[in-house]
């Protein structure tokens, strides 16, 4: 396997309590050819100073104004030198074999993009990949397979919509699938999220904004295709399920 450098972009906002653990999970990767770029999005808790003092090998970028995760990721990519770009959020972690497994699969199948499943607040490290599949636009229309911290992709493909504040990652994945990028999915969890993927704030307004972002992403990328109506209908069914899950959590 030809060695490829991966640049990981980590948006940071008031994450002084979690960033060390996130960075340590990158340091602990079996695959060692990794560049780290942290983008501080105007933190008020000394996150920037903490990273600068305690993590000298991290390439650190500071926003002049709060830009949000999409613009911060785009900005971070401009400071990357790796052939591939990965993403990690400051309260999530990678399992040690994550990048090694994904790079091997990218080589084996000629992938442009790869993501993986996740767990929540665990420290698993699977030794083997149980299942792998190629994902196309029609698969992705009904399910966002790719949590952003699980993704590795060719650097030239990264372009998040900075005007979209919710589901901007799903919008990019759909655009890439529409452009015939070869996308793979590892069903084995390779990351751990620090919080549930939705409903953790307890604010139904955020769920509504997420839903509107998802519908916008589907409509923009599938408009005119027969599958668009069914994808939007399924999205609303999932939204009702999410509301029920959040309601049950509150009981």
TrEMBL record:
Transmembrane segments: none
Taxonomy, superkingdom: Bacteria
Keywords (A to Z) from UniProt: Transferase
GO MF entry, a single one: transferase activity
UniProt xrefs under InterPro entries: Glyco_trans_2-like (IPR001173), Glycosyltransf_2 (IPR050834), Nucleotide-diphossugar_trans (IPR029044)
Coiled-coil ranges per UniProt: none
Domain Glycosyltransferase 2-like: 7-131
Protein name: Glycosyltransferase
Encoding gene, per UniProt annotation: wbgP
């Amino acid at each position: 396997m030809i060695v490829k450098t991966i640049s990981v972009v980590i948006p940071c906002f008031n994450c002084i309590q979690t960033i060390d653990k996130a960075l340590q999970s990158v340091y602990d990767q079996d695959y060692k050819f990794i560049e780290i770029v942290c983008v501080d999005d105007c933190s008020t808790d000394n996150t920037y100073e903490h990273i600068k003092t305690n993590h000298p090998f991290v390439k650190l970028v500071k926003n002049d104004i709060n830009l949000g995760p999409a613009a911060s990721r785009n900005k971070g990519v401009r400071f990357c030198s790796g052939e591939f770009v990965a993403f990690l959020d400051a309260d999530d972690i990678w399992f040690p074999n994550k990048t090694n497994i994904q790079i091997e699969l990218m080589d084996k199948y000629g992938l442009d993009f790869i993501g993986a499943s996740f767990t929540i607040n665990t420290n698993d490290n699977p030794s083997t990949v149980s299942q792998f599949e190629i994902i196309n636009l029609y698969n992705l229309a009904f399910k966002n397979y790719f949590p952003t911290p699980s993704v590795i992709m060719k650097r030239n493909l990264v372009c998040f919509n900075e005007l979209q504040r919710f589901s901007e990652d799903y919008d990019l994945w759909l655009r890439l699938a529409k452009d015939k990028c070869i996308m793979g999915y590892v069903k084995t969890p390779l990351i751990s999220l620090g919080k549930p993927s939705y409903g953790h704030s307890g604010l139904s307004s955020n769920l509504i904004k997420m839903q509107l972002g998802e519908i916008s992403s589907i409509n923009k990328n599938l408009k005119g295709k027969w599958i668009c109506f069914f994808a939007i209908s399924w999205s609303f069914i999932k939204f009702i399920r999410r509301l029920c899950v959040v309601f049950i959590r509150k009981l």
